[in-house]
Design goal:
With 402 residues, the chain is α/β, with parallel strands linked by helices. The protein is built from 13 helices and 15 strands. The strands form three sheets. Strands 4, 5, 7, 8, 9, 10, 11, 12, 13 and 14 form a ten-stranded mixed sheet that branches. Strands 1-2-3 form a three-stranded antiparallel sheet. Strand 8, helix 8 and strand 9 form a beta-alpha-beta unit. The longest helix has 22 residues. The protein is globular and about 65 Å long. The structure holds cobalt (II) ion (CO). The site of cobalt (II) ion has 4 residues, from loops.
């Protein structure tokens, strides 16, 4: 196959599951009939911008090139615009990068995890989300997951907006997803005391702060949660406040997961080298795909940091397949976030990784092992409304962090 070329790059936007989860799937077609690859470019809040970046810039840039030169194409896509990095561009790059790895596996006649050193484990341990408006509801939701075999559960009280939501909106305040940071500080330690007593010692519990506390309060919360032996505490500070992790590390041994909002591995490198967190949690398409994720994971390995790739409903099943191939191959895999999908979404993506008893397994097929029904995707078009939950507001009416 001397003259293999990229013939066409296509992007599909679809929303088969949840109106908060607009998915972007990229297909790279090659000059070899039947040889193509799939990638995830899902930036659910700015999906049209990613579409434009692919259709107008990156697609034309790689068309006609040899799809086997993944590293070279990745570098070209990253610096080709001179100004580089950022969520729109990185997601667009990821769509192509993942598809190229999918093609590489198909050419080699191997699943992608074989290309990266083979399996370190048969499957990836996963965690799901238990939500509720009372500690009793959260415990019920967690028990249901434990009955399905999950041994790790993320437990949240009150969803995105906390418990009071709109009730907190002050007179004259703009609409938004209102939350009270102090409510977390007051109620979350009690929640975990209750959950430990109700659910026992065997289950691993996780909590996501969603960067919604002032840094000093985040340190306080981490200390208050220490007795309940969390598996990890996620996004305890905002990426802008990473320096505060030094103070937190000095005061508590609660394992810290960071990085969902990072774009560029260079943003995290100094904190990795200082071992200021325990789990790297990037959204793989957000940093530019599999090529940078492999490098980042190996860097983290050198510093004893494990992976916990972002994996809620706003990662497409193609992106989840990429996560799971990385999970089973990487020595320093930690855990995989996992979300149940609608029947329509499962049907649209045949071959997606399967979960059994709280562990996710790739299917052993070549490349990423996943397909995509583009005709069916047309029946589930995306709406273009703003997501709403990201307009997070504090009780005084000012903007907070989502
Ligand atoms: Co999170």
């Amino acid at each position: 196959m001397k003259d293999l070329r990229i013939e066409r790059v296509e992007i599909f936007l679809t929303q088969p599951h949840d109106e908060r989860c607009r998915l972007a799937v990229v297909r790279v077609r090659t000059s070899e009939p039947g040889l193509d690859g799939l990638g995830c470019a899902t930036f659910t809040q700015r999906h049209r911008a990613v579409q434009a970046a692919l259709e107008h810039h990156l697609g034309p840039l790689v068309t006609g090139r040899d799809p086997r030169a993944i590293e070279d194409l990745w570098q070209g896509m990253m610096v080709g615009g001179y100004w580089r990095n950022g969520p729109v561009l990185n997601n667009a790059i990821s769509g192509i990068d993942m598809a190229l790895w999918d093609i590489k596996g198909k050419l080699a006649g191997m699943p992608c995890y074989e290309l990266w050193g083979g399996k370190s484990r048969p499957g990836a341990t996963a965690y799901c989300h238990a939500n509720g408006r009372t500690p009793e509801d959260v415990a019920r939701s967690a028990r249901r997951l434990m009955e399905q075999g999950y041994r790790h559960v993320r437990c949240q009280l009150g969803g995105y907006s906390g418990l009071k939501g709109e009730d907190l909106r002050p007179p004259g305040g703009a609409p938004g997803a209102y939350y009270d940071p102090q409510e977390k500080l007051r109620r979350i330690p009690d929640l975990f005391e209750y959950l430990r007593a109700e659910l026992g010692d065997e289950v691993e519990l996780l909590y996501d702060v969603h960067e919604r506390l002032a840094p000093c309060d985040a340190v306080k919360l981490a200390k208050a949660l220490e007795p309940y032996r969390l598996f990890f505490l996620e996004d305890v500070v905002a990426p802008e406040d990473m320096q505060w992790l030094r103070m937190l590390r000095g005061q508590t041994a609660v394992p810290i997961a960071m990085g969902e909002l990072f774009n560029n591995p260079q943003e995290m490198t100094p904190f990795i080298a200082e071992r200021l967190f325990d789990f790297i949690r990037v959204h793989v398409s957000q940093i530019g795909g599999i090529t940078p994720a492999l490098k980042l994971a190996h860097l983290c390995d050198a510093f004893g940091i494990r992976t916990a790739w972002h994996g809620p409903g706003d990662v497409s099943p193609v992106g989840m397949a990429a996560n799971v191939h990385l999970d089973v191959a990487l020595h320093n895999f930690g855990i995989q976030e996992w979300a149940e999908r609608s029947e329509a979404e499962q049907e649209m993506f045949p071959g997606r990784p399967e979960v059994r008893e709280g562990t996710v397994y790739p299917n052993g097929r070549c490349g990423l092992g996943i397909d995509f029904d583009a005709d069916m995707a047309k029946e589930f078009p995306c709406h273009d409304r703003e997501p709403g939950w990201t307009e997070a507001r504090l009780p005084d009416g000012g903007m907070g962090r989502p």
